[in-house]
Write a structure and sequence with these properties.
The complex is a heterodimer.
Chain A: H1 3-10, H2 15-52, E1 56-61, E2 64-65, E3 68-69, E4 74-75, H3 76-83, E5 88-99, H4 113-124, E6 128-129, E7 135-136, E8 139-144, E9 159-163, E10 174-178, H5 179-184, E11 192-195, E12 198-207, H6 211-214, E13 217-220, H7 221-227, E14 233-234, E15 236-241, H8 247-258, E16 262-266, H9 268-310, H10 312-320, H11 325-365, H12 408-435, H13 438-443
Parallel strand pairs in A: 8-13, 10-12
Antiparallel strand pairs in A: 1-15, 1-16, 2-3, 4-14, 5-8, 5-15, 6-7, 9-12, 10-13, 11-12
Helix pairs in contact in A: 1-11, 2-9, 2-11, 2-12, 9-11, 9-12, 11-12
Chain B: E1 2-13, E2 16-28, E3 33-38, H1 44-51, E4 59-64, E5 67-68, H2 74-83, E6 85-88, H3 100-111, H4 115-128, H5 145-156, E7 163-167, H6 175-192, E8 195-200, H7 203-208, E9 211-216, E10 219-220
């Protein structure tokens, strides 16, 4: 009978005790795995959030906010300088224009209300007139070079309900219409409307997520630049960095390139605040992971200590008949490994079952940050950003859709943790074994 | 075979020096059944532990085949216990979750005897001590006291030791079984050329021995 065989059989000397230890240790290992999975999942989510939101810098001409203020629009030469900077993953150019009754046959989908009327009195100018001859706000037209960056399009979302997106790099007279303005003007895909004296074809209709967005029109940047006689001009620029970590350096570099010509604003603070709940889950997971590992080690340590004390006489006998300390220690380490590996299997099953529910409980119990304070971008109609309000794409989902996935690496980590627990738990009992003097066994006869 | 010279063992108990073995000297030739007899607390178990290299003496020498085990390092002592010594305990001290045959195999595993040879040798030894084949795979709890002691003797003989040390080998047995066990030990001493030293306080056992050492307060009298 080999040492491994003996260690294995020893693990089952007392079936009830073995079952109890296995169950308790399995809970500890399951907890370790769940926390490890939470850590990895949350970290992946943080990385995802960092690379997709909050890494945005908005560059707008100095002194201009939408259609208010004054100054000079940015030029393509300035834009090309920025696009040459390091750590920029995407750059989207925007040109805003307003369509008045003189520029289009479209009817505005938004009623003026007291706010619109006050704006007009305060210098909003002649804009739109409805069928009754009353004033309505102008129609917002946005030219974009990249439809995938929606944060600068004055929309909460860009869900195409009919037709398809246009090629944002083209110069074609095509447009996407918000669903309300499309209904108001009885427009469908492939129908046309007039803007700046030319026919514009409806490529698609979208759900923009808010009333303002659904009353607006999107076009390829170059087409709008040509139609509105603003060739090579850009009213705002949205720059995405490759990570939130490079945001500050890119912001500084843009400021250095443009100097006083532009206002350069980043969303770093808001993004960091948005990430806070995930950071909290990460911290809790980390502490719980250590706690569970320590608990597991203590459980196996106490178990092995109890077993060693119980078998003191047997250890003495083994030494008397020629076993070395190493052989006896190895036998107990095998026993400890068997208990831990059995617990690991049960722990992994429990971990696999309970990891998502536990993660969801963690996510639900973490207080969301108060991002109620508005962070208004430079574009017209920039919305309030609030976690969970669904207004900043990506941010609102940070605490939702967190789904832990069990991979082979996690199983490997689990096994490594189990071996670590077994070795740590066997260390002191092994020391005690080496101290057992066989002479005492004989003396106590 | 065994030569003990001026052997002493002292230890502290409750702050006082206790001399468990005091300047003991004796010799035992090969293949002799010897007995150390003495009352409880006379130091006989301590003397046996010293002979078995389970404890270090305070002074003196123990020569087995002219090799002084007192001067041996830890590694050599392990080898000495594996190859030259066999122990028989009063409480048998068999490993409870191993079968009779596996208990006998255990010391052979430590000396590196091949797997197939171990089993064959263990079966032969068990047969020699009177354990029938149907009991080879029984756990100690399913054997009588006498049978357990027979298995313990077979285990002690597993590596063909030069010296078998038996501490009160019949202490837990009825007199009839005890007598059988002593006869077995005697027989093994003569047939296997093994020196057997048994510790006892039973005069009946002492009568069976070729050599008797009386121990009193740690000294031979």
């Amino acid at each position: 009978m080999s040492l491994i065989n003996r260690g294995f059989r020893n693990a089952f000397r007392n079936v009830i005790r073995t079952a109890s230890i296995t169950f308790i240790l399995a809970l500890s290992i399951a907890m370790s795995l769940i926390m490890l999975m939470s850590l990895k999942t949350v970290q992946a989510k943080i990385d995802e959030v960092k690379s997709s939101i909050g890494n945005t810098i908005v560059v707008s001409p100095a002194g201009i906010r939408g259609f208010e203020g004054g100054g000079e629009l940015l030029t393509e030469i300035e834009v090309s300088k920025i696009s040459a900077l390091l750590n920029i993953s995407k750059l989207s150019k925007i040109l805003n224009a307003r369509l008045t009754t003189d520029d289009t046959n479209l009817k505005s989908a938004i009623e003026a209300g007291s706010f619109g009327r006050r704006t007009r009195i305060n210098g909003g100018g002649q804009t739109q007139v409805n069928a009754d001859g009353d004033f309505t706000p102008p129609i917002m037209l946005t030219g974009t070079s990249d439809l995938s960056i929606t944060s600068n399009l004055n929309v909460s979302q860009l869900e195409i309900t009919q037709g398809e997106k246009f090629d944002a790099g083209s110069d074609q007279n095509v447009a996407l219409l918000g669903k309300t303005i499309a209904e108001k003007n009885s427009l469908v895909v492939d129908s046309t409307f007039k803007a700046f004296g030319e026919d514009i074809k409806v490529a698609g209709i979208f759900e923009g997520g808010n009333t303002f967005a659904n009353g607006s029109v999107l076009m390829p940047l170059k087409a709008l630049q040509r139609l509105s006689d603003q060739v090579d001009q850009v009213s705002s620029l949205t720059v995405q960095t490759n990570s939130i970590d490079t945001l500050a350096s890119v912001q500084t570099a843009i400021k250095a390139q443009l100097g006083d010509k532009a206002d350069v604003i980043s969303q770093q603070e808001n993004a960091e605040e948005a990430l806070q709940p995930l950071q909290n889950i990460k911290t809790i997971s980390l502490y719980s992971l250590f706690g569970a590992l320590v608990a597991g080690s203590i459980i196996i340590f106490l178990t092995m200590l109890m077993i060693v004390r119980e078998r003191r006489r047997e250890i003495g006998v083994l030494k008397a008949i020629g076993a070395s300390n190493l052989k006896i220690v190895n036998q107990f380490v095998v026993e400890s490994m068997v208990l831990t590996l059995m617990s690991s299997v049960v722990g992994m099953i429990l971990g696999g079952i309970f990891n998502n529910p536990v993660l969801n409980v963690l996510a639900k119990n973490i207080k969301e940050p108060d991002l109620g304070s508005s962070f208004a971008g430079p574009g017209l109609g920039r919305a309030i950003v609030r976690i969970g309000s669904g207004l900043v794409p990506g941010v609102q989902d940070t605490l939702r859709n967190i789904q832990a996935a069990v991979g082979f690496d996690l199983i490997l980590y689990g096994l490594l943790a189990a071996i670590l627990i077994a070795v740590v738990g066997s260390a002191l009992p092994a020391f005690l074994i080496s101290k057992v003097r066989p002479a005492e066994v004989m003396r106590s006869e | 075979m065994l030569k003990v010279e001026n052997l002493s063992k002292e230890f502290q108990s409750a702050g006082q020096k206790v001399v468990a073995v005091n300047q003991v000297s004796f010799e035992v030739p090969t293949g002799v059944f010897s007995v150390i007899i003495g009352k409880s607390g006379s130091g006989k178990s301590t003397l046996l532990a010293l002979l078995g290299a389970l404890d270090k003496p305070t002074s003196g020498s123990i020569k087995v085949d002219n090799e002084d085990i007192v001067k041996m390092g830890d590694k050599k002592l392990i080898q000495y216990r594996r190859k030259k010594i066999g122990f028989v305990f009063q409480n048998y001290n068999l490993i409870p979750n191993l079968s009779a045959v596996d208990n006998v195999i255990l010391p052979m595993e430590f000396t590196g005897v091949s797997r197939s040879r171990r089993r064959e040798k263990a079966a032969k030894l068990l047969a020699q001590v009177g354990i029938t084949e149907d009991k080879f795979n029984r756990k100690p709890s399913r054997l009588s006291g006498g049978e357990q002691q027979r298995v313990a003797i077979a285990r002690a003989l597993a590596n063909q030791p030069r010296l078998v040390l038996a501490d009160e080998p019949t202490g837990n047995l009825d007199s009839a079984t005890g007598e059988v066990i002593i006869k077995l030990l005697k027989h093994l001493a003569y047939t296997k050329d093994t020196t057997i030293i048994a510790v006892t306080h039973d005069d009946g056992i002492a009568r069976e021995a070729k050599q008797i050492f009386h121990l009193q307060d740690g000294s031979l009298v």
